[in-house]
Amino acid sequence: MSSRDKKDFVALSDQHNARGIELADRGWFDEAVKEFQKAIELDPKSAHAHDNLATVFSEKKLFRDALNEHLTALKLEPDSANAHYNLACFLAGRAHEMAIEEYKEAIDLDPDYPDAHLNLGMAYADHGRLDEAKSELRIASELDPTDAFPRHELAALLMDEGDYRAAIAQLKEVVRIEPDNFEANLDLGICYAQKGFYEEAERAYERARKLQPDDLLLNYNAAALYALWGRPERSLELLAAALGKDAAKVRDWLSMDRMFESIRSRPEFTTLLA
Known about the structure:
Radius of gyration: 28 Å
CATH architecture of the largest domain: Alpha Horseshoe
Number of helices: 15
Shape: elongated
Order of helices and strands: HHHHHHHHHHHHHHH
Number of strands: 0
Number of domains: 3
């Protein structure tokens, strides 16, 4: 092929690329794909045509195709700031959605894949799709009853929603599977305290204390328990321990925490915060 023919092909490729951009701007993505593909056939080294095709594939939720086109553009022009920028924009805006689609495809191929359900549930949770997240985490727990992690993640979502009774059921199972799980024992204590089961909360906190006695969250939440329970001396003792770990953070928590109302008027409380 002569150099003139190559120039003609490049020019024709640019025309198809420009037409593809016009169609994409109007939302006619199928027609835009055809134009960009024609542009690439005429000039396979057209990085911008690959980038534009990637953008349209992304709009059509064909994420693997979009990623391939972005990578092709970057391979053709590795020193192009624009190619790097476009790939970064795709990853920042679409990688999470792409992960969800890939997890779903893995599940379609193997419905009994517990890790796929687990990770899909966590991806849904990150996306704020909480009902779908809880459903997937429950499936993961059922598929692998010996794995405490999906149950603990499910419990965390239930706690965030204020469904402490349902969270307790999950956390009791987590603690049964992993008795030395500090976070699970701590969360179980928090849930029991929220439901007014103070003796059960105390037992959960004591199990956690055997594992990490100086933990800030443990001492703070246990102090809140004893304040609610009408045991101010123990509450103030544990609150002092929490303040000793991070006074600024604890003072900030206390400014918004109504669980300590019963001891705020005590001189010892004022002295601790001074």
